[in-house]
Specification:
The chain is mainly alpha-helical. The protein has 15 helices and no strands.
Amino acid sequence: MRNVSDLEKNAATPASGFSRVRGRLVEYARLMRLDRPIGIWLLLWPALWALWIAADGHPDERIFVIFVIGTFVMRSAGCVMNDFADREFDPHVRRTANRPLARGVVSPAEALAVFAALGLLALALLIPLNRPTQVLALIGGVLAVTYPFLKRFFALPQAYLGLAFSWSVPMAFAAQTGELPVVAWVLFVAGVLWTTAYDTIYAMVDREDDLVIGIRSSAILFGRADRLIVAGLQAGALALLACAGHLAGLGRWYWLGLAIAAASSLHQQYLIRNRDPDECFRAFLNNNLFGLAVFGGILLDYLFRV
């Protein structure tokens, strides 16, 4: 006859098993950076700008859903691959030392398995889309996968991230219209400049740690000219967004949104004035307002168009 302690142990086993599974899922979610959704929003805004302009304010519902889910999947996959590539460096950087791979609570093999699952889901999302969009998506996938490894030897990885994060713009036009007009490429370059600017601000947070461990970044490359160059990138992005608005025939609501985005850029310049890491991180997060303001202007302009 089993004693009470044995019965208690067996009764606790299912709960313990559930807790272990839950613990793994939580670590996988952290690996995909689901606890920090800012990256999803920054990746999503250019896609939404492009979808609404390409469709004259009325994007196809199916395409909209695919792009929203695809943004979530690709950002998650990119974070997993980034942490896999940086698993030897992250333990030595204050901001990244608590990531699952850096702490050793998720193995490299597990990370690759999660990445493979996300990759298969991304491929499944491409099936309903037209051939030009599928081809562009594969190119975008290559950009996303190769970005984390460029920091070893490429001095300006933030610009490469700009290409990857803005690639949804030509994809959205291709999916919605089957064409790539001039406005698509103007919007794409605007996205590249904007991404390079905010990711440089992000890199300013880790500049001292990156110098020690040998990671390259635009913040290191630009040195004391970082604020001035970021301002130039922001001004270039705003100018190209203005050009895109003109080409698309957008009106006063769009210009109001662009004015708010410009004010956001000025606020970011104020925050990074002393290059304090915490304030630089706040400036980076403020770019969510920039992207939202531009999209809000586009959305309202089409909504109230006569």
